[in-house]
Design a protein that fits this description.
The chain has 104 residues and is an all-alpha fold. The protein contains six helices and no strands.
């Protein structure tokens, strides 16, 4: 399936939307790392924010204080979360397990 040909205006709009989404995700990751935001707040905010809902769970976990690459991978395996899973794709049990591990 070929990608649709975009007009220059459509391409510019798509690039702007992608940039805004990356910025929003970076702000949330920084807030998590600094302790300004909790995991439960991020999960709640992701319900209404498409750019956050599309953030990978692994990236979200790595943004938590004290969680690096190895611990994030171990947590995802422990909770049965696929490596490619995004926040919007988390199941009820997976969300509750994450919130139980990272209360606040």
């Amino acid at each position: 399936m070929a990608l649709p040909q975009l007009t220059p205006q459509e391409r510019e709009a798509a690039l702007d939307k992608a940039f805004a989404a990356r910025q929003a995700r970076a702000e949330v990751k920084a807030a998590l790392k600094n302790g300004d935001m909790t995991l439960s707040a991020v999960l709640e905010k992701a319900v209404g924010d498409e750019s956050l809902a599309k953030m990978k769970v692994h990236d979200l976990l790595r943004s938590m204080p004290g969680v690096g690459e190895r611990r994030a991978t171990a947590l995802m395996e422990e909770f049965g979360i696929a490596a490619s899973r995004r926040i919007k794709g988390l199941g009820v049990h997976q969300k509750s397990a994450l919130l139980e591990r990272f209360p606040g």
